[in-house]
Amino acid sequence: MPDVNLAVNLAGVTLKNPIVVASGTFGFGREYSRFYDLGELGGICAKGLTLHPREGNPAPRIAETPMGILNSVGLQNPGVDAFIREELPFLRQFDVKVIANISGNTPEEYGVMCEMLADAGVDLIEVNISCPNVKAGGLAYGTRPELAAEVTETAKAHAGNVPVMVKLSPNVTDIAQIAKAAEAAGADVLSLINTLRGMRIDTKTRRPVLKMNTGGLSGPAVLPVAVRMVWEVAQAVRVPILGMGGVSKGEDAAQLMLAGASAVAVGTACFADPFAPLKVRDELAALAAEQKLSAISQLTGEVKPW
Length: 306
Ligand SMILES: Cc1cc2nc3c(=O)[nH]c(=O)nc-3n(C[C@H](O)[C@H](O)[C@H](O)COP(=O)(O)O)c2cc1C
What we know:
- The longest helix has 15 residues, at 276-290.
- The chain contains 8 helices and 18 strands.
- Helix content is 30%, strand content 21%.
- An 8-stranded parallel β-barrel has the order 3-4-7-8-11-12-17-18, surrounded by 7 helices. A 4-stranded antiparallel beta sheet has the order 5-6-16-13, with no helix packed on it.
- By secondary structure, the protein is of the alpha/beta class.
- Helix 3 packs parallel to helix 4, helix 5 (223-236) packs parallel to helix 6 (250-259) and helix 6 (250-259) packs across helix 8 (276-290).
- The relative contact order is 0.17.
- It is globular and about 55 Å long.
- It has a single domain (8-57, 72-197, 217-299), classed as TIM Barrel.
């Protein structure tokens, strides 16, 4: 089979292949580094960081669902300082792009974290806007164009030369509208989708299975939603897209790229199989070779809608 050029570009950041691992599903890479060289990946989205360390939510906080999982981990993390001190030097040993993922309670918190991470030299900053805005009564930033724009603007103002990737929430009526607001506010890249809010109930105890009652759905069940949303966003913006949601095969990644993604993240699939991202990469390369493509980027946005 002919060689396919797997390199892709996200706002000036070149990934050697389009496969990234999704935030919160790969920790800071330490556990996975026992299985393979992390330099095999295009990029690593580190576990979501907050300004201060967080314990996360009470257990149970993961539940299986048909073709997916629900989680309410609640951003358990050591804080941005500890990441920069202890985890970033570890990740820097590998020839892989490092993407820091941040969540804040206020736009100011996002700004402070961006400044710290830009100074520390991460390759990209992924701004998770699926978290509640404390000042707006707990409304998630990602559910209102003006809130999404405010966080994006603040992040951009503090990120220096490091590109800012805004991660969109699927829990909205019109994701293209939020995407446009983030792009207009300066987002260099958009990533989507985050988890879909869901719930599971134990019919014997009549209690929700998760201690937080509801959680975020991910895994193969969400792939068609992700493909649809990437397609809608790709038609509404010009910035590159990192697509994710339910990818476990090369075919899934190809669907997201055809819908408009330049690169693809693998998340929940890593839990069942640590090698899933490499399997997806190789299957995607084989699919492109079969289709006689010389570069994987030739898939991006090439869906032919009826
Ligand atoms: C256990 C778990 C923790 C997650 N933590 C984060 C996080 O900290 N920040 C974030 O932006 N997304 C987080 N996500 C969302 C994933 O990055 C991804 O957007 C989502 O799971 C969809 O992809 P998947 O179906 O391939 O897992 C988390 C997902 C899971 C399952």
